[in-house]
Amino acid sequence: MATSSEPMCVDERKTSNVTIKEGDQAILKKGKTVRIFQIRKKRDIWLDKIKFSLDGAVGHYYGSTFVVKNGQMHKVQKTFKEAEVLGPEKGTDNRDLHDLDSNQKLSREDIEKMKKEGAKGQEIIEQLIENSTTFKGKTEYAQEKWVKKKKQKHVAEFTVLKPNTRLMCQMYHEKSPAKILNIRMDTLAQILTYGNVHAFTNVAVVDTCSGLVVGAVLERLGGYGKVFHFHPGERPARPIVDNLNFPQEFLDNLYNFPFCEINSLKSEEGKSDDLIDNSHGDSVPSEGDSLSDTAVKQCTDSNTETNTGGESTESQDKDNTDPVARKRKAEMSTREANKILYSKRLSEAKELLLKRNIDCLIIASKFNPTPLVTTLIEYVAPSRPIVVYSQYKEAVMDAYAYLREIGCLVNYRVSETWLREYQILPMRTHPEIQMSAGGGYLLTATTIVKEQK
Questions:
Q1: What is the DSSP code (8-state) at residue 161?
Q2: Largest interatomic CA distance in the chain
Q3: Three-state SS for 251?
Q4: pLDDT tens digit string along 347-380?
Q5: Cα–Cα distance list, 363 to 212, 247, 360, 415, 448 (Å)
Q6: Among 118, 156, 165, 175, which one is most buried in terms of CB atoms within 10 A?
Q7: Facing residues of 30 across strands?
């Protein structure tokens, strides 16, 4: 019996990442509408003017399609195609057709009544076709386009997708491109390719585009390799990374490094050399190196006990009985533990950076990239790529001119990404009418060993 239960455990681990669970971040797609929501039971959401609950999606696989009925999601096995409702009669051209309200005999009240009676979206579309005076005179292409438009309006079908960097980039670029510095999918792919990002590499990233580049690097590394995120402020703002549902082993390889701590790397260089020399001998490891999460918790508990040891027995009894005081005490303990853990992680990041073994430097920031790249380039190993992205040509050209002057790189290249999307349909393949005007500018180069004068 023991041997038969082991494969079941393996299957559960495999399917846990592809099934929808409560608390996950999931992407709902309806046509070209893409939005991300957290899966929470007994909570209604609005999407495309439809109010419904996500309870019915829990337990199903990502990629499943659901239909909304009475505010609840029900899985559908097959969605109907536009060709299934088309009749045999078709027109030769549309020159004699006019877009008038009188072409449709069904009124809005009739359609709403059919929806309240539980009519399916396909049934509503079939009734609209029967009551249309101009549908049979349309060409085949016009009929398919008309049915597709009605399906988008009357069929409440949503596909639940697992978040990834491609979908997140697409969603942000369509909804609020300024938050990701107008980075398109093709530009993001070029950043990862020029940076040679792959497993078992150490990547330094300057990211102020909501964590899009950091999330893409973490996804490409697959949990093998380290990422150093340089950011303004004390804490990074990267909602995209939070929405990608990365496992904890991925996030353990992510180090936060504020801009204000970059100058302190110079002063830490001497201390780092002493730590490296001690590591070859029989000396005891330093407290920062041996401090684990359990030790952090024990240290916090001991500090709490020391601070509260001088209190009277009466005040201690009051704290134990008062739920507000207990909650405040627990929050203070958690806050102190987070501070110690943050200090420990920052020390680890400094020690790793001072080894000057970074395999790639990527800068995608709203700030001037010149001082950033000139400061961080000395921690990149020789013969390694650097990639600088900016949505403005002047910022990239300024960094290019300065780096050429100091002479620490080779293989300079400045490029502008351009993308044209095409509609691929039978006899109707042509470029999209609306397209992105520009995808930003990239500066790529390779580091070399600079001789000391």
A1: E
A2: 94
A3: helix
A4: 898 999 999 999 999 999 999 999 999 999 999 9
A5: 12, 25, 10, 15, 18
A6: 165
A7: 33
CA 183, CA 357: separation in Å to the nearest integer?
A: 28
Report the side by side order of strands in the sheet with 201-207. 254-258, 225-231, 201-207, 360-364, 385-390, 441-447, 409-416
Grade residue 445 by pLDDT with cuts at 50, 70 and 90. very high
Query: Does residue 225 come out as left (phi exceeding 0), alpha (psi in the -120 to 50 range) or beta?
Result: left
Other Cβ atoms closer than 10 A to 213: 35
Helices and strands, counts by H and E, the chain: 16, 16
Q: According to the model, what pLDDT value does residue 146 have?
A: 85
Lowest mean pLDDT across 117-121, 284-288, 324-328, 361-365: 284-288
**Residue 329 is which amino acid?**
K
- Tokens describing residue 346: 């920052």
Q: How many CB atoms lie within 10 A of CB 190?
A: 19
- At residue 2 the predicted structure's pLDDT band, cuts being 50, 70 and 90, is very low
What is residue 287's predicted lDDT score, i.e. its pLDDT? 37
Neighbours of 330 (CB within 10 A): 11
Token code pair at residue 131: 């009551």
CA distance 288 to 265: 16
Tokens 């005999």 sit on residue: 105
- Exposure on the CB side of residue 337, measured as CA atoms within 13 A: 18
- Burial group, residue 409, by CB count within 10 angstroms (0-12, 13-18, 19+): buried
Token representation of residue 292: 């684990």
